[in-house]
Amino acid sequence: MEAVGQDSCGGGDASRGTEWRPAPEARVHFRVTRFIMEAGVKLGMQSIPIATACTIYHKFFCEINVDAYDPYLVAMSSLYLAGKVEEQHLRTRDIINVSNRYFHPGSEPLELDSHFWALRDSIVQCELLVLRVLRFQVSFQHPHKYLLHYLISLKNWLNRYSWQRTPISITAWAMLRDSYHGGLCLRFRAQHIAVAVLHLALQVYGVEVPAEAEAEKPWWQVFSDDLTKPIIDNIVSDLIQIYTMDTEIP
């Protein structure tokens, strides 16, 4: 079975249809995961720890109503916890200062006063809450390693001119990063997400895989034999919904 967890996991997406509208909680999660990504970059985090932080955040709100806790506090704790999980440890002081600068551009680092220590304690206590809610299952398989292998294989299949004239690789990586604004990481398998973003990147630039028409099975099924076209279409649809929200949310 492809879908993982509840349908609303990872963002509260509305059901697919001609009149799709993102649910209010999906907009909240979009904004907060955007904060996680931007803060993660400023903290010097690599792509996998940032992806882990987003996944922890989405998984937490699969179990807990978004109104129950401050999403940004959960996000800060997710960054802190992801740093531990992926062995790229972060100081709570750095997370607090980067977050403060995010919400108050140009502001000075916070003084080590009672407000600072209260916020630090909140992050640590929230981290423990997240761990309990997720039953300490905070290690995830991400699509990144699969996408890397698939890109290498595809590069060998395509002629050099097609590969060099189109930024397929850059686009696929960007789409994978953007997918963490929603709950794809919880609803679909890592291999399937990797294939789907590569499939969409090829479509964007109109690049066809050589001998596709003559092949016994589609190129994407060579990478993942349990993958089907409807699954790819569902992942692409979710990605398009994320980009639609991106144009609507300031």
TrEMBL record:
Organism, scientific name? Rhinolophus ferrumequinum
Give the Gene Ontology MF terms in alphabetical order: cyclin-dependent protein serine/threonine kinase regulator activity
Q: Where is this region: Disordered?
A: 1-20
For this protein, the record's InterPro entries field holds: Cyclin-like_dom, Cyclin-like_sf, Cyclin-Q_first_cyclin_box, Cyclin-Q_second_cyclin_box, Cyclin/Ssn8, Cyclin_N
Protein's GO biological process: regulation of cell cycle G2/M phase transition; regulation of transcription by RNA polymerase II
**What is the name of the protein in this document?**
Cyclin-Q
Cited function: Activating cyclin for the cyclin-associated kinase CDK10.
- Domain (Cyclin-like): give its ranges: 34-132
Q: What family does this chain come from, according to its entry?
A: Belongs to the cyclin family. Cyclin-like FAM58 subfamily.
Q: Which domain of life is it from?
A: Eukaryota
Task: Spell out the CDD domains in the cross-references.
Answer: CYCLIN_CCNM_CCNQ_rpt1, CYCLIN_CCNM_CCNQ_rpt2
Q: List the Gene3D superfamilies hit by this protein, alphabetically.
A: Cyclin-like
Q: Name one GO cellular component term.
A: cyclin-dependent protein kinase holoenzyme complex
Q: Sorted alphabetically, which keywords does the UniProt record give?
A: Acetylation, Cyclin
